[in-house]
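Table S2 (text version). Query chain:
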Amino acid sequence: MSLGDEPGYPETGQTRTRLPDDPYGGASRRGGRSSSRSLVTVVGVVVLLIAAIAFANRGDGDNNDSSSTTTTNGGTNGSQPTTSPTSATGTKPVETKTNGIPSGFAHTEQGAESAAANYSVTLGSTGMFTTDSRHRIVNGLYTSAAAGKLQTAMDAAYSASFLSKLGLDANGNAPKGSTFVSRTVPVGTTAEQYTDSNAKVSVWYVGLIGMSGTSSTNPVTTTWKTWTFDLQWADGDWKISADTQMDGPAPVPGDDQAAASDEISKAVEQYGGFTYAR
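Corresponding structure-token output:
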């Protein structure tokens, strides 16, 4: 979901934290960290804001086998098409949801990858910019301990002044005639670590963020990021205990002609998101 080069982040490939009540200032140091666990939990507050912060600032100033691939070849076996070795594999997507969020992922490595992909989609959505929806998302995706620490800090971070820099009102709504776009589209996943109780899964994705409308000065743009989730098996499902992001890998931009603002608005309304499996 993150856009552009985030000011204040050295080229180290590591996510840096900022105090949630000052999302536009320079990087701030936190004092009195009681443990590494509390640090990685709070990282989630800033991780979810990286894309929006970069977007707002821009407006002010101007390989594992578990990776998911969906290639099919053109060969046939009688009347049936054949698939290449890199085609997507695994069990069918989950069919259950809790408060509109996919849930009930398998207690397997593949289930952890599926959960991470789905969670990146939800956390990269416009639902994070309205209070009630954000509370529901955080409570649904994070462990109870992590959610308890994140909610208050996130509410402070998604302040009215912050939202206004994105072109949104104090309730997170876009102006009449405009469409605020925030989407995460997973390209692939990999399980870096896995046990029955914990997993670390990275999701490579392309993000869309911006304001589509005739009066918008911040058009919808794309970015490529890798989102890494520390997951715990809790309450019969995979839950996030901490998460971090880093830039790329980004492919060379193509020669596609940028669409007009009204085309983007129509596309966002016409094409819904997906539930991701593996």
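Notes on Table S2: Residues 246 and 267 are 28 Å apart (CA to CA). The chain has seven helices and eight strands.
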